[in-house]
């Protein structure tokens, strides 16, 4: 039989256990309130005690709150905080991405898929409040199912997301067009890669990061001591930083919804500069941009119509043979650099016009000449125009696609010059855009 002392000791022990258990429950509820569907809390009623108007991310956080993308943390005293300098966890990031889609009306469906992934969620300690958002991400190919295995520690602590993970998930959320030529200012250009969870292979993610850079969603970090820009793929992302990213994702989707898929100012690449370094092994060019004096890195990927100094090709072997003398050759799906020289001035343009992907590289200024064979509306003010180039076809094949370059031109300019289909013209370009055109007689 237990004596009085033993009973008191046991009751005290039970009381301590109950207290600890209740505290644990309270913390669990607080976590649910932070990111679960807290229907009792309206955005207008949320005021974060740790975010003042002086904080650099105040406007982004305020915006994300008003859009019901974030709700913060609730403590014992009913005080709600955001913890803007805390790193965003993978569970939180996927939750915020879903809510961004919902805010802009781009959630594909609102079915509940949690039970489809019940085993993997339970095995990997996924918080109940995060399950709807992670299951949506798996279902819609924003993440792979295997990524769930590295989201939460055994004690239930969420694992912070790396910058490159944030970039990949953000890119998959909005699905922007990928370029065939990547131009980025990041000094760690060659570190933009991940180990694929499914097969263990290393795969670069330059296309995804380039798309985010071109659309102004993730622009890297500026290192003040030497005025360079880095992406830092393995660094973590602060919660305030990711609130800013979500606002840019929202703006991108809203703009795309209102204006369609083609954006004249974004869906192109045009640069002028001086080549400072050619990396044959990595198939890259480094150059100083004429506009801002900063170093940029160019990488090439994919098959597309390629024009070098106004000579246009699609046949790989002919491109390879001809361009050995001009500095860039296409081999398989990659371009390699050969005889392009340091300090050579160049001009490069990439873009998708009239559903044609093409890359144009000029190492000298030229007045172009050709016959108009196609045109059509792009925007209210812009027309695309297809010009069959004359006098520069290096291909032996009689294929009209090989000879056509596509540009954009102001409708007023085209109208004022009284130019129409089948006219032969001389013209000057600035990037994708024809800035002067006249009939050639």
Key words describing this protein structure:
441 residues; disordered N terminus; 21 strands; OB fold (Dihydrolipoamide Acetyltransferase, E2P); eight-stranded mixed sheet
Describe the protein:
It is a single chain. The chain is built from eleven helices and 21 strands. The protein has 441 residues and is α+β, with helices and mostly antiparallel strands. It folds into two domains: 155 residues, no CATH class; 172 residues, RNA polymerase II/Efflux pump adaptor protein, barrel-sandwich hybrid domain (OB fold (Dihydrolipoamide Acetyltransferase, E2P)). The protein has an eight-stranded mixed sheet with strand order 3-10-9-8-15-16-11-12. It has a five-stranded mixed beta barrel with strand order 17-18-19-21-20. Helix 3 packs across helix 5, helix 3 packs parallel to helix 6 and helix 3 runs parallel beside helix 8. The chain is elongated and about 80 Å long. It starts with a helix and ends with a strand.
């Amino acid at each position: 039989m237990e004596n009085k002392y033993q009973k008191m000791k046991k009751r005290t022990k039970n009381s301590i256990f109950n207290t600890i258990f209740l505290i644990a429950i309270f913390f669990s509820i607080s976590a649910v309130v932070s990111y679960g569907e807290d229907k009792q809390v309206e955005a207008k009623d949320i005021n974060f005690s740790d975010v003042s108007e002086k904080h650099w991310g105040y406007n982004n956080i305020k915006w994300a709150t008003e859009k019901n993308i974030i709700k913060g943390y609730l403590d014992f005293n009913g005080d709600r905080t955001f913890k803007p300098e805390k790193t965003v966890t993978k569970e939180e990031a996927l939750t915020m991405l879903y809510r961004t889609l919902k805010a802009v009306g781009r959630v594909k469906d609102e079915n509940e898929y949690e039970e489809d992934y019940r085993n993997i969620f339970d095995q990997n300690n996924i918080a109940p409040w995060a399950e709807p958002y992670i299951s949506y991400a798996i279902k819609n190919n924003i993440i792979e199912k295997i990524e769930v295995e590295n989201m939460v520690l055994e004690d239930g602590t969420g694992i912070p997301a790396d910058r490159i993970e944030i970039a990949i998930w953000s890119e998959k959320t909005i699905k922007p067009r990928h370029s065939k030529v990547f131009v980025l200012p990041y000094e760690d250009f060659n570190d933009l890669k991940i180990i694929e969870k499914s097969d263990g292979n290393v795969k670069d993610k330059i296309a995804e990061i380039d798309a985010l850079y071109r659309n102004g969603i993730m622009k890297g970090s500026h290192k003040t001591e030497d005025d360079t820009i880095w992406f830092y793929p393995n660094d973590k992302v602060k919660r305030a930083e990711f609130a800013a990213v979500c606002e840019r994702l929202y703006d991108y989707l809203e703009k795309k919804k209102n204006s369609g898929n083609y954006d004249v100012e974004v869906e192109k690449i045009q640069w002028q500069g001086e080549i400072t370094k050619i990396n044959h092994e990595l198939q890259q060019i480094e150059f100083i941009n004429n506009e801002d004096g900063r170093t940029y890195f160019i990488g090439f990927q994919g098959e597309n119509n390629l024009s070098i100094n106004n000579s246009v090709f699609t046949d790989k072997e002919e491109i390879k043979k001809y361009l050995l003398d001009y500095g860039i050759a296409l081999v398989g799906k990659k371009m390699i650099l050969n005889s392009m020289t340091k300090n050579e001035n160049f001009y490069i343009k990439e873009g998708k016009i009239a559903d044609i992907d093409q890359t144009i590289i000029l190492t000298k200024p030229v007045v172009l000449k050709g016959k108009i064979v196609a045109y059509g509306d792009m925007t209210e003010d812009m027309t695309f125009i297809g010009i069959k180039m004359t006098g520069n076809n290096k291909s032996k094949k009689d294929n009209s696609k090989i000879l056509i370059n596509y540009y954009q031109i102001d409708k007023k300019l085209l109208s004022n010059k009284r130019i129409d289909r089948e006219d032969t013209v001389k013209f000057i370009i600035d990037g994708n855009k024809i800035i002067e055109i006249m009939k050639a007689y």
